[in-house]
Amino acid sequence: MANQSLVPKNPSKSGKNWLVEVSQHDKSGNHIYTTAGGIVKTKVKVHGAKFSDEWPQSLYFPDGHIHAGLFKGMATILDECRFSRFVGKNSKLAQCPKFQCKGNLAAPFDCCCQHMLYNQPDFVDINSLLEAACKAHSFEVLFLPKFHCELNFIEQCWGYAKWIYQLNPASSQKDDLEKNAVAALEAVPLKTMFASHSCHFMDAYSCGLNSCQAAWAAKKYCGHRILPESILDDLEKSNIT
């Protein structure tokens, strides 16, 4: 969705329709640039939404309407979604001051039109641009939590590639650097992807181990799926603190 601060509450007026600015692309999907080097922009209508029964809901008035083609505004869109009690006499603000919605436990999503609209399922469950691009090519995107690199096996793959890269002789030649970088990335073993190593750290932290103890345990018990019950005694015997 577009910048939240620009979404109008009421229908657009003729000649001032609410549109979103996007970058223009050529037939190959590449950006189109101006002679000054900037990306060419254009304004388009926002994609439609869906009602609770999955029936499509256009965010712009249909052909034949007195305001055909104009943006309906948040109040009208919410009214169509059976939130009429918040439109008209009991109308809500377009947005809370400074977009700091507080809500309350009884009705956490009805403090303003924007908060109500953006918490509707069809607004929440929207694919990101990355997900949409990958889905178009039959690829699935998996977003991992922002954990420490020990718990993210993709980070471990990157670390493995850097370790392979630093084994190469020092060079200042661009071709050598590029060749070595590509070779290091291709050397990452795809069969394991370090997922087991990440599981070792997760199990160690769940047992209350600190980072130093977790690293020692992950190395010592690399062939185990989980740590043994004797892990705390083993740490004490090995003087690992």
Automatic annotation (TrEMBL):
<dbReference type="GO" id="GO:0003676">
    <property type="term" value="F:nucleic acid binding"/>
</dbReference>
<dbReference type="InterPro" id="IPR036397">
    <property type="entry name" value="RNaseH_sf"/>
</dbReference>
<protein>
    <submittedName>
        <fullName>Uncharacterized protein</fullName>
    </submittedName>
</protein>
